[in-house]
Amino acid sequence: MAVEEGRVGTFAERVARKRFATNAGKYLLRRILFPLALFVPVGYFLPKLALFYAVCGLYDISRNHGLNPSTFRRYFIGNGFLTWVISPINVLLDLLSLPYINKGVYRLEDLPADYQEEVKRLIETAERENLVARLQERSKEFPRTMIFFKWYGVDVDTFLDIPAFRQDWKYIQTIGVSVFNKKVSTSKHFGFLRASLRLLYNLNDITDPSAYITVGNKTNYWCENKLFIFDDTLLHESINETDQTRYCLFVDIIRPSPFPWIMRGVITLVRLTSRSLNWIFYKHWKVINR
Q1: Quick check: 222 and 269 in contact, CB under 8 A?
Q2: Which of 128, 127, 136 is nearest to 245 (CA)?
Q3: What's the distance, CA 231 to chain centroid?
Q4: Domain ranges for the chain
Q5: Phi, psi angles (nearest 5°) of residue 155
Q6: What topology does CATH give the domain 105-287?
């Protein structure tokens, strides 16, 4: 019996070592070798372009509070890599948004009056539709679920038809619901584009402060504030360590700017080019359409 247990233990150890080596190899390839293979030749053959990207990246990451080596690693060779690649576009969008300075984290009152009115109207619509009860059955079997009704300005044909969401919104571009089952959280990560702001609204009543979102040095507890608006290109994470399921209205709104048509055009371009890349943006989610 002791011999059999020893064999099992040895086999389990071999499996664990193999899994560790596989994961380490994937990490090395994605996080280190691929960025080096891309940017070392750029730095050698196009040093001015490399310097330009370095400056844009340093500006971009400096917007985050509490900078530390982990933040730099995540941004330059981690899940913020795409944000760095697009950083020159985001810097340009920052300039085109002036005099609306990017606050990072917003209150509703920080937005122009017509934005506020549209956001309030959407929230009232969502609450009338009783979305939590209508989505509960379809989302309970997955750790994280996303249901879209509108994606970057275009209506989505989904299993739950909400006609009120299909109206013409002037600033709202994406309408969805993100569902975190109990004891489910994200890792720290960056969004990739600053043509829009992310708006989350907690649809069910959370009573435990262990469900929250953190952006930089700001933490929003859903039991205290149901509405949270932020620039999702900042490092952030969503946590649900409660025994409740967390339902949040998931919305993208056009970033306030003297040139809203440019912001809308960038969002449209992303929509047209990213449909086949949704697996990158939501690979850790179950996106339910039908």
Answers
A1: no
A2: 136
A3: 10
A4: 2-97, 105-287
A5: -65, 145
A6: Jelly Rolls (2.60.120)
> For residue 70, which of 194, 187, 200, 209 has the smallest C-alpha distance?
187
Cα 136 from Cα 116, distance rounded (Å): 29
Tokens at 123, concatenated: 């929230």
Compute, in degrees rounded to 10, the torsion defined by CA atoms 31, 197, 264, 272.
40
**What are the angstrom distances between the C-alpha of 91 and each of 62, 74, 94, 223, 259?**
12, 19, 5, 35, 15
Q: How far is CA 237 from CA 27, 131, 174, 222, in A?
A: 21, 24, 20, 14
Of 187, 234, 242, 192, the C-alpha closest to 212 is 242
- Cβ distance 241 to 183 under 8 Å? yes
- Given a cut of 50, the residues of the chain with pLDDT beneath it are 1-3, 5, 8
Q: Note the pTM of the prediction, 2 decimals.
A: 0.85
Distance CA 230, CA 110 (A): 11
Q: Percentage of the chain with pLDDT > 70?
A: 82
